[in-house]
Each structure stands twice: as C-alpha cells, then as structure tokens.
Design a protein that fits this description.
This protein has about 475 residues and is of the alpha/beta class. The chain has one domain (about 5-469): Amidase signature (AS) domain (Amidase signature (AS) enzymes, Alpha-Beta Complex), CATH 3.90.1300. Helix content is about 40%, strand content about 15%. It has 16 helices and eleven strands. It has helices at about 10-20, 25-40, 50-65, 110-115, 160-165, 180-190, 220-230, 265-275, 280-295, 305-325, 325-330, 340-345, 350-375, 405-410, 440-455, 465-469, and strands at about 45-50, 75-80, 120-125, 170-175, 190-195, 215-220, 260-265, 295-300, 380, 415-425, 430-435. It has an eleven-stranded mixed beta sheet, with helices on both faces. Helix 2 (about 25-40) runs antiparallel to helix 3 and helix 5 runs parallel beside helix 6.
C-alpha cells in the first residue's frame, strides 16, 4: 500500500482511516519519505515538522482505534503556506525580514485543522509576503513546478500548489489577494478555492492587503477542497472582515447533477480583455460542451472591462501593502527581495484620493456585477492567460504592466474556484475558473465537481523524474 499512499485524496484517505484499513502513522511516514526523495528539487517546503507529525499520527491512531473519530480530517496530513502562524514553529513569509519569527499562537484556520485532528507536516514556500515572484534572493529558493521544473509554479501560494500536485501532501492552505491560490492551482494542475471574503478568518495570517486578503484550501479534487473549507470556515471576532453566516456541509454539493443550472461565460475576459493562449481557449470551449452535455444552460455574459477590476485590486493592494511595510521599508529596505520591492514601492506614490476612488469604483463594480449575475447560478472564465511560462523568461519589467483575470473576483470578494481542464501539447496543465455569488460556495463546488467527475484530468499525475529531465 505504501507505494500509492502519496496519491491518496483526502476523501479516500479519510474513509480508509475511518474504517481502520489505513494507519495515520503509515500515511505520514509515506509522505515524509516522498518529501525526502523529491523536495530537494521541488523546494515546496521551507520547514518540515516531521517529529511532531509522527507524534500526532500516533495520537490520532489511538483516538480512532478507541472510537473517538473526529471526522473526515482526523489523521489526515496537510501543510501550510508559510504566512499562517503556527505556535512554536517559525512563520517567516519566506523573507529575510521575518527570519527567527516564532509565533505564540496558531492562526485561526490552523487551530481549526488541529481541532479537526489533522496532522501538520510542515510549512510551505510562498512568494515573499505573498506578493511577487519568483525570487532568487530570498532565504530559500523558489518552488519548482512538478510538471516541468523549468516552468513557473504560479504564486504566491507556490509551495502549496507544488506539494499537492507532487503528492507530498493531500491538501494545503493558501491565501489569495489577487489570485495567489488560483494561479498555482492553474499552473500545477490542482484545485484551488478562494472563498467569499469573510468566510474564513485571516487572524494569525501575515497580511498583505486588509481589503483583499482571503484564506482558502488547495487540494487534488473539488471534494477535498469542500472538506478543508468546511473545517476552516466560520466566524471569528479577531478578524474585522469575518462574516457571521451559517456554514453548511459543503460535501452535500458533491456528486449532484447540474441539470438546469445556468452558467454565464465571461468570454471577453479571456478573448478580448486578456487574450489567452490558444490551448486554454480550446480547452474551455470543450469544457463548455461537457457542461452543456451534463444539462447546464450556457450563455455569454458581459461584465465591466477586466482592467477596471484589476486597477482596483492593484491600487488598493499596493497602497495597503505599502502601509503595512512602511516602517521596515524606511529602515531596512535591503532586507526585502528585489521582486517584492519592485512591486510594493509604487504604493508610496499613491495618494489618498487614488485609494478612495479605487474603493468607490470597487463598490460600483460589485453592484453592477450583482445585477449582471441575476439569472445565473455561476460564472465561468479562464483562470490564467498562459500555460506555465519558463521561469528564466520572466522579468521584473513585465510585472506592473500585467493584469490578471483572477483579480476580478478578488475585487468582487466572491467565491472563485480554479480547476484543471486539460493539458497543453507539452504536458502542462490548463485551467478554468468557476465563480459564484457571495457565500454560495456550495453551487460553485457542485458545478466544479460535476465537471471534474465527467472528465479524465484527475487521473493524470506529474511524472517527477520526467519533470526533472
């Protein structure tokens, strides 16, 4: 069994654990062995918590055998993007600025996973302070794409995308301010879910933007994301943005048909506003046919130009990030990496008027999109405009000129899920996004799961030996 434990999904592993046909000790040991064998090239982990994970696995096994089964995450290994505080374990945001930083408390989401009986295996690579990248002047090298080590992982939740895709852990948490869960999900071929702003507390997560930061799950399947989201969602008074809303059982959305659901295709995002690579357009066209065959009603919908959404995201995020780092930028600027400095310093040139106008435009875009959304259950568009680029071809000069499709749903604050919809001729993943109405994560999961089950992409895993070659 140990030869296939690294590719167990959370749902599969949880069922084996519940039935006591799998030991959490064996699962954790198999993953630690795989990490040891492959992470030297992948660089997904910044730190392993191997000793603690082994101890937690033994404790979980005792509880399960004794009949104290806590639920579908009990005994399940996971890892965290290294911006989630972990009590007694360094949390550094992959920056020289935070070396030696050891939190005294767990982040809210981390504490929820601990309470659910999940087992922390380690802390994962991120772009510095969840912004920018890839960077080669940080305390650790950037993570590498398991589908091809010379290709970009996407970011900033780079380690989370790599670790799940490569079978180092079955699930991880990332954060998303302008696409930082969905970009690596797209380039690494996994599922990444940015929930509605306020659904998951950000307390104990190193901030980038108070207005835009969102925490969410990353896993191999839609169902696994539903399991993780169900554990970490909930009201928290320590996060001013936290929403006091009912938390449903998101797994009830899994395995349902989608007949009669209406899907609005935001085609201009990926055909006109930000023209995507031909393989992505072709994959989305095929996906729409598949969804129609499953009984969904497909219709194009036109929203505001992508540039309007992206401009709001850039101005607000850049201004808030600059404010958060203002003191350190003044007194220890060279401790930041070049990529992060390049991205954040323009925030110092923004005026209060710029910031206020961006917030006003954001409210206007939300109101307009809510009206356009009437009559649709979900929206569908591309996740990223290109297949994973070659890292050595990426330059700092293109950063400020770029605008991402993902930023639209950060500006809205609505749930958006990225999942694999095929592969390029070179074997690199392609991705689409399904987005929904505020706090209607269940419908997004329902549509994504139906598509995932009807297509073969989940059965294809990266060949790590070939990727290295």
């Amino acid at each position: 069994m140990s030869t296939d434990l690294h590719y167990l999904t959370i749902a599969e592993g949880a069922e084996r654990l519940r039935q006591r046909t799998l030991s959490p000790v064996d699962w954790v040991e198999a993953l630690l062995t795989r990490i040891e064998g492959f992470d030297g090239e992948l660089h997904a982990f910044l730190a392993l918590t191997a000793a603690a994970a082994r101890a937690q696995a033994v404790a979980a096994e005792r509880e399960i055998v004794a009949g104290s089964y806590r639920g579908p995450l009990h005994g399940v290994p996971y890892a965290l993007k290294d911006i989630y505080d972990t009590a007694g374990i360094p949390t550094t945001a992959q920056s020289w600025v935070c070396q030696g930083r050891i939190p005294q408390r767990d982040a809210f989401a981390q504490r929820r996973l601990v309470d659910a009986g999940a087992i922390l295996v380690g802390k994962l690579a991120t772009h510095e302070f969840a912004y920018g990248g890839p960077s080669f002047d940080l305390p650790a090298p950037p993570a590498r794409n398991p589908w091809g080590l010379t290709h970009f992982t996407g970011g900033s939740s780079s380690g989370s995308g790599v670790a799940v895709a490569a079978g180092l852990v079955p699930g991880a948490l990332g954060s998303d301010t302008g696409g930082s869960i969905r970009h690596p999900a797209a380039h690494c071929g996994i599922v990444g879910f940015k929930p509605t702003a306020g659904l998951v507390s950000r307390a104990g997560v190193i901030p980038l933007s108070y207005s835009y930061d969102t925490c969410g799950p990353m896993a191999w399947t839609v169902e696994d994301c539903a399991i993780l989201l169900g554990a970490i969602a909930g009201y928290d008074a320590d996060d001013p943005q936290s929403a006091d809303v009912p938390i449903p059982d998101y797994r009830t959305a899994i395995g349902r048909d989608i007949r009669g659901l209406r899907i609005g295709v935001v085609r201009h995002f990926f055909e006109a506003d930000k023209p995507t690579d031909a393989p992505i357009k072709a994959a989305i066209a095929t996906a729409l046919k598949e969804l129609a065959a499953l009984g969904a009603e497909i219709e194009d919908v036109t929203l505001a130009p992508l540039d309007d959404f992206a401009a709001c995201q850039w101005v607000i995020t850049c201004a808030e990030a600059n404010a958060i780092h203002d003191d350190n930028l003044r007194h220890r600027m060279t401790d930041y990496g070049e990529n992060f400095r390049y991205r954040i310093l323009p925030g110092a040139t923004l005026s209060a008027a710029d910031y206020v106008q961006a917030q006003r435009l954001r409210r206007q875009l939300i109101a307009e999109t809510r009206q356009k959304m009437e009559g649709f259950d979900v929206l569908l568009t591309a996740t990223v405009p290109t297949v994973a680029p070659v890292v050595e071809n990426m330059t700092l000069s293109s950063v400020l000129a770029s605008r991402g499709i993902t930023a639209a749903f950060n500006t809205l604050g609505w749930p958006a899920l990225a999942l694999c919809c095929g592969f390029s001729e070179a074997g690199l993943p392609l991705s689409l996004t399904i987005a929904g109405k505020p706090f209607d994560e269940a419908t997004v999961l329902r549509v994504a799961d139906a598509y995932e089950r009807a297509t073969p992409w989940r059965r294809r895993r990266p060949d790590l030996a070939q990727a290295a070659a």
